[in-house]
Amino acid sequence: MIRFAVSLCLALMLAGAAQAQAVRIKDLVEVDGVRANDLVGYGLVVGLNGTGDGLRNAPFTEEIMQNILERLGVNVTGEQFRPRNVAAVFVTGRLPPFARSGSQIDVTVSAIGDANSLLGGTLIMTPLNAADGQIYAVAQGTVIAGGVDAAGDAARVVQGVPTSGVIPAGARIEREVEFDFTQLSTLRLALREPDFTTAARIENAINRRVGQPAARMLDAGTISVDLRRTGAGSPARAVVAIENLPVEPERRARVVVDQRSGTIVMGEDVRISRVAVSQGNLTLRIEENPITVQPNPFAEGETVVVPRTNAGIFEEPGIGLAEIPSGTSLSEVIAGLNALGVSPRDMIDILKSIKAAGALHAEFVVM
């Protein structure tokens, strides 16, 4: 299965290498100022079926429960709670750009105490703060947990993560981010993958579309666009005019390997210099076969155990000394190794050795 996955990825790469595809500018860059903001809050989930926090182990749960009840007019000072149907949680969400008051966003709820499950629980009204300490949204609703927790007297089965869940459209925005996009005179485009060639191509595409030098490449990751020269009338119209322009991005030569699954992904521009490769596997095998020795009948003596050990070293078939000519693409090397029946694990070790020898001309990423 792993070898099939490697061969499939190689086939897809070779099929896509035949013709480079142009990509829209909006898929290559981020517009400076148009970004989401992270939100976080601390709240309480109630209505759990005996799977909540143990208040002796999570005193903060009792504290927040007292605060909520006192805000609702219930005096619980000095009272002792020991419910098992409440859990303290962190609530996280993202405030999207240009979000307006009254719109709703999704939130994630995660237990922070010793609760076993949040299945069936309801999040009580929880304010969500941004990094500036201001409240931007309020969350409340039924938690949808993505796991199963079943237990008996002597066994317990857990599937997934029942202590974390989501509330779709569970938070309502109460405050807007103060950012006037219409007052911008210069638009900055930030490349997701900084590259001088790609930035230059984006600059040329925008200037051809506008008809005058409105875009200017500042560095490998930034293009500045003078909105006054675009003739669009507003920053939003300018973004609409340029974000769908096709540009062929330049990619770095890169090899990515995942040691856990044996997956190898590579670009078409990866090249290998002239190098010789020899690979083999050694297996050490040790077997213990002790023998029990007993004295003859009616003879004096005692039963003893005599150790017997069989040890050996075996060399499995591997790759003999093979020379790879200069200018060979990595895809050709992988195809040859696949034809020889080399396992993905050994293939990754070979690629590491070629990179260490300085013959693999690409960025080597190991996950």
UniProtKB/TrEMBL annotation:
GO terms for biological process: bacterial-type flagellum-dependent cell motility. The keyword RNA-binding does not apply. GO terms for cellular component: bacterial-type flagellum basal body, distal rod, P ring; outer membrane-bounded periplasmic space. The keyword Signal applies. Keywords: Bacterial flagellum, Cell projection, Cilium, Flagellum, Periplasm, Signal. Pfam families: FlgI. GO terms for molecular function: structural molecule activity. Residues 1-20 form the signal peptide. It comes from the Bacteria. It is found in: Bacterial flagellum basal body. The basal body constitutes a major portion of the flagellar organelle and consists of four rings (L,P,S, and M) mounted on a central rod. Belongs to the FlgI family. Assembles around the rod to form the L-ring and probably protects the motor/basal body from shearing forces during rotation. This is Flagellar P-ring protein. The gene is flgI.
